[in-house]
Amino acid sequence: MKHFNAVQxxxxxxxxxxxxxxxxxxxxxxxxxxxxxxxTLPRLTLPEGANPDDPDWKDIDLxxxxxxxxxxxxxxxxxxxxxxxxKIEPILTEPAIEQPAAISFDANGxxxxxxxxxxxxxxxxxxxxxxxxRISRWEDKNNDGVYETGTTFVDNLVFPRFVLxxxxxxxxxxxxxxxxxxKYTDTNGDGKADKKEFFTNKYGRSGNxxxxxxxxxxxxDNWLYSTVNAFRIRETPxxxxxxxxxxxxxxxxxxxxxxxxxWFQGGASGLPSYFQFPIHYGNFxxxxxxxxxxxxxxxxxxxxxxxxxxxxxxxxxxxxLKRVTGAAGNDVYRGDRLPADLKGQYFYGEPVAxxxxxxxxxxxxxxxxxxNVYQDKQAEFLRSTDPLFRPVDMTTAPDGTMYITDMYHxxxxxxxxxxxGTYLRTKIEQYQLDKVVGLGRIxxxxxxxxxxxxxxxTMYSDxxxxxxxxxxxxxxxxRDAAQQVMVQRKDLSVVPQLTALxxxxxxLPARMHALWTLEGLGALKVDVVQKLLKDANPRxxxxxxxxxxxxxxxxxxxxxxxxxxxxxxxxxxxQIQAMLSAKVLKLPDMETGIKTAMASNKAAxxxxxxxxxxxxxxxxxxxxFGAPELAASQKAMVERGTLIYNELCSQCHGNNGMGxxxxxxxxxxxxxxxxxxxxxxxxxxxxxxxHGLEGxxxxxxxxxxxxxxxxxxSDEWVADVLSYIRNGLSNDAxxxxxxxxxxxxxxxxxxxGPYQYTQLAKLTPFEVQPQTLKVTASHTNSTRIGGNASPAxxxxxxxWSTGGRQEKGMWYQIEFPQEVNVAELHFTAPQSIKPGxxxxxxxxxxxxxxxxxxxxxxxxxxxxDGQHWQAVMADVKGVEGDNIVSINAPKSRFMKxxxxxxxxxxxxxxxxxxxxxxxxAQN
Length: 923
Description:
Elements: H1 6-23, H2 26-38, H3 73-77, E1 80-81, E2 86-93, E3 100-105, E4 111-115, E5 133-139, E6 149-157, E7 164-165, E8 170-173, E9 181-185, E10 195-200, E11 217-218, E12 224-225, E13 231-236, E14 239-244, E15 254-256, E16 262-265, E17 272-274, E18 314-315, E19 320-321, E20 328-332, E21 346-350, E22 355-364, E23 367-372, E24 382-384, E25 391-396, E26 402-406, H4 423-431, E27 441-447, H5 464-470, H6 476-489, H7 495-504, H8 508-520, H9 526-532, H10 538-553, H11 560-566, H12 572-585, H13 590-600, H14 604-614, H15 632-653, E28 661-663, E29 666-667, H16 676-679, H17 682-691, E30 693-694, E31 706-707, H18 715-728, H19 738-747, E32 755-756, H20 757-763, E33 766-767, E34 774-777, E35 781-782, E36 800-801, E37 811-829, E38 831-833, E39 850-852, E40 858-863, E41 870-876, E42 881-886, E43 892-899, E44 913-922
Parallel strand pairs: 30-32
Antiparallel strand pairs: 1-24, 2-27, 3-4, 4-5, 5-6, 7-8, 8-9, 9-10, 11-12, 13-14, 15-16, 16-17, 18-19, 20-21, 21-22, 22-23, 22-24, 25-26, 26-27, 28-29, 30-31, 33-44, 34-37, 35-36, 36-44, 37-42, 37-43, 37-44, 38-39, 40-41, 40-43
Helix pairs in contact: 1-2, 5-6, 6-8, 7-8, 8-10, 9-10, 10-12, 12-13, 12-14, 13-14, 15-18, 17-19, 18-19
Pfam family, one: DUF7133
Keywords: Heme, Iron, Metal-binding, Signal
Protein name: C-type cytochrome
């Protein structure tokens, strides 16, 4: 919680009261602070410019109010409203944890808590990116239902985005405004991570902390997904690979049902975002996904009317929310210790309305419509009359019940929406909501007559054969965890056991998990898929179509006829799945098959999916969650490169870029998918294609032995195939131009024979790691509201900006740890929000005005000592988007970018902005 120093407290409370304050629990401390602040609470007035006749402000009560005081967990529990038979109890609360935002269990049932300890500690979101958040781990060692034993697993984090258990004593997480995901491991068993390893990059976004990626999630298909990002990733023996997916349009929450379909939760919409079909098949526009009245919440009377949208969004006279406006956390309940009719129901939180909703998915003709179970009763599954109840995550627990993560916080909107002069800021100050910080509770929901499962999982020490038995467990959490542990172990001794389970078990969920465990182990065989495609249960036939995609993409085309037969399946959902699989696999007869399915089945889902595959609807603006598409010329380049790769390169490097097996665990050639070498500076790959490569690569040898020279091919040919490899084989790197190839060809004309890796590594430009650099600037301003301004932000997704208008002489300087030969400079000059712009609370959905903030003209200088400068690039013209500048500079300790000209004073106040800055040096 927020701490005050002794001088501040002594002045406010007096010496005697100070002693009482320091000994009080967090709730009592907040109450004391509010008590003294309330003595001077003035009557509020409308902010300047506010029109009392506008719907936002009309009938607003501005009288002084007693502060909203936090309740103890026992007091809060009495304020919950649940359907008959349900009970709720706290299992972990402050002061042990602060501001929990999500929980996740490892395969031994230990609970990791994501603690966002800097979220909205005041109404201006000050210090939100300070490194004081943490991930803690908790256990119920005496098995009494309360998590009493905990450790700080990872500390000093900058607003971490997620926590994903990833093996025994290991998690994955990343920080805000960052790009890398790291693996943290406790190697000595003390409950605290002592080892940090790079896991993957190009994973981040920047900006408002509510708009960045979150909830890295392990799907039943063994891929890792997250909100915001339109791709999925997966660890392989040869590195991390990725595949593009549809846009999930989600903010805070990912979960899956018993069939492995992912459900993404929207944020600002207050609604689930994408749930019709698995996201890796792309986006489909489905009308009427929500039943009539779905967007109307029925919270308990909280009286505060503290809604971002103003009085127009307030239900009178109880002061509750009348239209969903914010959502967080989600769960398809898959446990076994609550009533059976809850299984498969979708739950999500609406923390502005102080509710948890129970949603019934109804599938008709292959399309899903969501219904609020308690809408007709004008109620919700879980409500509270305590205005500080903030449900931000729901989780099916190992004990078969459902847990609710309650941030228990005063403010639940980020600082961009609580600025001075807004309606919401007025209500925050009226009730002193900004004073309630540093609390948080985790709750368990149970049902009368159904005791929680007290069996403690021990999967990390269980034998692999015992884990197979867990795939038959009635609680989906146990099945998920057992599958994940087996996939990570790579123990192939259970393949016969899994195959028999997949083909013969009477337990449908067990058969599905056995199938996907085989897929995750790399042990799935075509004959197993083909047998399951003939199974009597259509749900299993769907799983076989999905799992078979892995084999088909790896080059086994024997399944093509089976996919084509599925177009004529007797089940509507199987026909839809056949079309989806055909789309992602680009089957040769896809169009014929889809038309056949549409002719034989008039179901709405078959028609919609078929039409949108054959004639894709125009992509709608994805806002902050979108990604720029390739231009037509770039798409043509990648398509040409695809043909080259499939005709030539795939023989050694594999159809999917994972390398062609050569026996004894060796590969014929290195894996290109997910390769850091391929995604680094493009000169590495260009040199290899032009002149070849032989011998070991970082100590690893390959059966093929030699990559042959392709220098007889044209610059365009080399650029095309490398553009496909860098952008189309689970990689995410820039395309390669023929001009870049020509430059390297000229530069390496004297090369005789293929390279050795050690030789090549020395010749290729390498990225200077930003953490080793000291950066300064003449002017610095944050690129986002509430951001922490720093020149070092130029290296992140957040970015750096001068803030004010571009002026001649403005500079950005880099100091290296030692002298280097700078070879290239890369940065992105994105569109920038117009300086001084503030969102109009009366028009919250109006997008901000953007300006082109690239540097118009600049000089690059270098210096050995920071005093004597030499210009090495003069009058460089910046461009919007990606800027790549080749530099031929002597060894230097300092580099400076200096603007050559000022923008017209009568024009827009356009700043100079940079983000994703990279500096490449040459050995």
